[in-house]
């Protein structure tokens, strides 16, 4: 091989080395780019998982009144507000006595007066068995069984938007932690326009229309629940003692929230029911 041929061969070898090095650099660049995409994707996925977890763990109550199972709020906290005319609330019961489902025929076409004695005074209710026979029969049966004794009204709402909700919710002896009386039933007499005027007495429930049981709510300010499918059973009206509900509402929600345990604890001590004769 001549000297010129040797030089040419050397140049070819050098070109091959340079080409290989360039190829290696290009592959390394592609690998770094791919790794960057993978890392960015993992960061996005991790962020999404974290956000989803946080949203799932969000305990902010829904706007609609809650029912008698896991969706109910907890018992009143230690944060209290002094309200004139109220005595200290009794301890929250630790168990619920199961009651057989009353026959709606016992209330059909009848009107009852219920005097709900609370630690803040008496609230008088008119129960309409003509429009909501099963609901009234249930309420009367639970009252006569002493089911509501010492039960706290565990929820007050002061929600203006997006769903106006102004109610005091009661009826669960364990302050929202109970599982109900052992039966449930469907909706009766829900207003078609979704409007619940001040003084309305209605049943609380879960998203299941057939989950009516023990919990009920008193509307202390006109409330519009037209956005809630099926609505809630109106089974009576408050005829006395709205001033008591008003001052509990005025005291606000424990912790300064808009939905939760009343800052001023109110509990049902007993409920006396009498049938109103024609």
UniProtKB/TrEMBL annotation:
SUPFAM superfamilies documented for this protein: Cyclophilin-like
Question: Which one Pfam family would you cite for this protein?
Answer: Pro_isomerase
Q: Does the keyword Flavoprotein apply?
A: no
**What molecular function terms (GO) are annotated for this protein?**
peptidyl-prolyl cis-trans isomerase activity
Per the UniProt entry, the Enzyme Commission number(s) are 5.2.1.8
Q: Where is the composition biased (Basic and acidic residues)?
A: 1-21
Region annotation (Disordered) ranges: 1-29
Q: Which residues cross the membrane?
A: 34-51
Keyword Transferase present in the record's keywords: the answer is no
At the top level of its lineage, which domain of life is listed? Bacteria
Residues in PPIase cyclophilin-type domain copies: 121-273
Listed A to Z, the keywords are: Isomerase, Membrane, Transmembrane, Transmembrane helix
Q: What does this protein do?
A: PPIases accelerate the folding of proteins. It catalyzes the cis-trans isomerization of proline imidic peptide bonds in oligopeptides.
Its name, as the record gives it, is Peptidyl-prolyl cis-trans isomerase B (Cyclophilin B)
Q: Which organism is it from?
A: Pedococcus badiiscoriae
